[in-house]
Amino acid sequence: MYDCCQDKDINVTKPFSKISPALAGLVLVALGACAQAPAPTGYDDPHEVQNRRTHGANIDLDRALVSPASTAYGEVLPREVRDTISVFSDNAGLPGVVANNILQGNVEDAVHNTVRFLFNSTFGLLGLFDVATDIGLEERDSDFGETLHVWGAPEGDYVVLPFFGPSTERDGFGILVDFVLNPLSLALPTEVKHLPKATWVLSKFGDRYTFGDTIEEFYNSEDGYELMRLYYLDSRRYELGIEVEDNELEDIYDAYDG
Amino acid sequence: MRMTGNDTSLTRRAVLGGLAGLGLVALLPGRAWAAISASKAESLIGQVVSDINGIINSGASEAVMIKRFEGVFAKYAAVSYIAQSALGVDGRSASAAQKREFTKAFQGYIAQRYGSRFREFQGGRIDVVGTSEGKNVYEVLTQTTLKGKSPFDVIFIVAKRDGKFIDMVVEGISIVKSERKEIGAMLDRRGGDLNKLIADLKAG
């Protein structure tokens, strides 16, 4: 079981736009055949040299472009407007989340998110307002990386992606699929087809602006690269409910003697 | 466990509990006699959370918020244990005075580092969700709800022994573990000079 997963080489750099969704489906079914992914341990980083290079390039890109653009965006538009754009973008992404919920066999979240989408798209004026949260239908995010995990795909190696930052082979592949297969973008008429993606970029600028201090801290940190790797892997594993044996922490908790 | 003695019934209960504890000690030699209950751990974290809720929505200046956060940290956390854990093996050769100074510097550094983010938390709310039991600790799960974001989990690791929290795990990220890495890197950059690290941490 373990081997069958290992043999599947997920090539994250492969241009995916030319491959039909059907073919992608086949690959995924093959991955899905491995029922249980091996539990990851530790923070092995076989591509560290390349990853550090990409990490550095991402920071350069941020300093040159993303950070100034985010600052301009944050200073020109008041918080209410930025929040509205972010809410709209999240809502536009919901059909994609529902698709993943279904692929994972998670009926409860699929229904939750469908009702949430219908509610916000109507009473929330095309998704400009998140009225669903107020009636107890809070945001429950998912993505194709999680779907792959549910299907039993292993985490793969740690990779730093250009622009997207810390990821794993599994999650990087997931980002590509989510990007290509956004159901709403496929369904929308040509004129507004790119609206969800445009607002997504703006909402990322908004996050960059709001959480600027936290992000700067990574730059100022003495080893931002290693910290980012730790943060990404630990939080992602937590999010997916992957139990990781962590003797380091266990030992620290056990040794406390007041 | 240190308590402010402004509640007589609490004091009386503590005394009675202490007597019962003594009886237990006689029965079970070697067992930690002051171990707290799960509900006690949860109510302690409930106090931490309500203090923090008060701070983030106080509208006070950032400097004041950081100072108050440091107060909460000093009151409820096992600060010196967390500091020594963060220092890790590098701390073994440190003198008692160095350890003391490092703990002091570390407390201010943590308050600055995490307290300065409270600006991002304004309008948010933290709630205690539930408690699970580990070997020597309770894990008290809290959820932080920020405007327009999905809620995120913070787990407080509370020592059974004395009810102090010895770690916070934010969406799977342990502060002790990440600070161990961070402090380790800082120390390496300074050629292992602990005094220099202490001075730099104090300087902010």
Largest sheet, spatial ordering of strands of chain B: 1-2-3-4-5
What is the approximate shape of chain A? Answer: globular
Number of strands of chain A: 2
Query: How do the SSEs of chain A run, as a string of H and E?
Result: HHHHHHHEEHHHHHH
Q: Please mark out the parts of chain B with pLDDT under 50 across 5 or more consecutive residues, or reply none.
A: 1-13, 21-32
Structural domain count of chain B = 1
Task: Output the strand order for the largest sheet of chain A.
Answer: 1-2
Looking at CATH, which topology of chain B would you report?
A: Nuclear Transport Factor 2, Chain: A
- Class computed from helices, strands and strand pairing of chain B: alpha+beta
Share in helix of chain A = 55-70%
What Rg of chain B, in angstroms, do the CA atoms define? Answer: 18 Å
Mean pLDDT of chain A: 83
Number of helices of chain A: 13
Q: What is the H/E string of chain B?
A: HHHHHHEEEEEHH
Largest sheet of chain A: 2 strands, antiparallel
Find the count of extended strands of chain B (DSSP E, 2+ residues): 5
Description:
Chain A is mainly alpha-helical. Chain A is 64% helix and 3% strand. Chain A is built from 13 helices and two strands. Chain A has helices spanning 2-7, 21-32, 48-76, 79-103, 107-122, 131-134, 144-150, 169-180, 183-187, 195-210, 212-220, 224-239, 247-255, and strands at 158-161, 165-168. A two-stranded antiparallel ribbon of chain A has the order 1-2. In chain B, helix 2 runs antiparallel to helix 3 and helix 3 (62-76) crosses helix 5. Chain B is 55% helix and 17% strand. Chain B has one domain: Nuclear Transport Factor 2, Chain: A, CATH 3.10.450. With 204 residues, chain B is α+β, with helices and mostly antiparallel strands. A five-stranded antiparallel beta sheet of chain B has the order 1-2-3-4-5. In chain B, a hairpin with a 2-residue loop joins strand 4 (165-170) and strand 5. Chain B has helices spanning 8-27, 38-56, 62-76, 79-87, 96-115, 118-121, 175-189, 194-203; strands at residues 125-133, 137-145, 152-159, 165-170, 173-174. Chain B has eight helices and five strands, in the order H-H-H-H-H-H-E-E-E-E-E-H-H. Chain B is globular and about 45 Å long. Classes of the chains: A mainly alpha (258), B alpha+beta (204). Chain A binds chain B through residues 83, 86-87, 130, 138-141, 210-211, 213-214, 217, 221-223, 226-227, 230-231, 234-239, 246, 248-249, 252-254, 256-258, and chain B through 78, 81, 85, 113, 116-117, 119-120, 134-137, 147-151, 153, 157, 159, 161-162, 164, 166-167, 171-174, 176-178, 181-182, 185-186, 188-189.
